[in-house]
Amino acid sequence: MENIKSLKGRILVVEDEKSMREVLTMLLEEEGYDIVSVSDGLEGIGLINDNIFDIVITDIRMPKADGFEVLRKVKEVLPETLVVMITAFGTTESAIEAMKQGAYDYIYKPFKIDEIRLVIRKALEKKKLSEEISLLRDKVQSSFKLENIIGKSAKMQQLFKLIPRVAQSNSNVLITGESGSGKELVASALHNLSLRKDKNFVTINCATFPEGLLESELFGHMKGSFTGAVYNKQGLFEIADSGTIFLDEIGEMPLTIQPKLLRVLENSTFRRVGGVTDIKVDVRVISATNKDIVEAVQSGRFREDLFYRLNVVPVNIPPLRERKDDIPLLVEHFLGRYAKDAKKISPDALKVLMNYHWKGNIRELENIIERIVLLTDKELITDDDIPEDIYLKSGKSDTLPEIGESDINLEEIVEKIEIDYLTKALEKANGIKTEAAKLLGLSFRSFRHRLYKYRIK
Prior knowledge:
flat; 16 strands; Rossmann fold; Helicase, Ruva Protein, domain 3; five-stranded parallel sheet; 20 helices; alpha/beta
């Protein structure tokens, strides 16, 4: 019986008047609530420190600690708990003050039984609704992070705002971005945040299938329609009915199949290969490409009418080199994914990764972190652990000031770059100057001259 009461709601009654405390306890227990009652505010505050309640009902005027002190403690320790205040000496001013401090409601004595029942019922309904909203928000943030998509940069924050808004419509979406930038993650988030989230999310890479096989994969085929078609087969559009289909590398779709895709987008119907019956489906189409699809349209390799049907809502994912503020977050995320024990990365190593160009974007970064974790047993990853090809290509050229954006002193810039590389070469060669000179492609004499010139010891 105790568990059933707890499920309905746990209520703390703080009331110094014995008869009123007993009436409230009896009334609320009859309603099925789990009741704890105390006779003064100080005792109530002690229970609030060590227990969780759904609702606190407190008198205002009490010895040792009044109802406002109880209210403040609840807001401090149990911010989700609702507080109902009762008093026989109520004034408008005290009611206003109670609501300002966060009370859910305010009741004057004597109150009717139905009144207190209604207030408590509504309070619990409000708390339950708040908890459901909070759980839903946590689920969305933890499952998708907009989540599996990670970033704090301004460009990613714009993307995070756009995705939930676009997800709620049924409009077709064209995602553009370089290879490895996370296009499938965005497509998945669009589906998971949509009204279709409980239906199928079907993906296909249009570049991985030859022309004949791609048509069969998308639309299915009838037995005997071609050599090897020994049974009727459903296509992905049928499987995705009421859900979402993600057409990756849409720019690689052959021209002969494009009219059939256009028909699905215009009429929501298609025929299986070798079929004579129209099949009607309700599918949202999300497509993606890492190619310049506008150029493909202009050159005649992609149908213009199909492009406009697919590109109802364009979503562009910025390359990693344009959002380098996100690299530390991504590195931390991948370290957590691949390292069995806790690993950290040194500032110098992180600096190397942030200076690299990342043509392969997030996928390339993930692969590098996985490789580093696999090949080092150290708890702290340093720049010595960075693969040599990454290290050597992580110059600072992309951090140099643009001409016209600021006052430029070319000699000073060159000096800083030389000092940086001379110092790194010495560190890499453990202070052996002949080895450091070789790393930079310099003669020992030229290397020594530069050390003297910049007073590097």
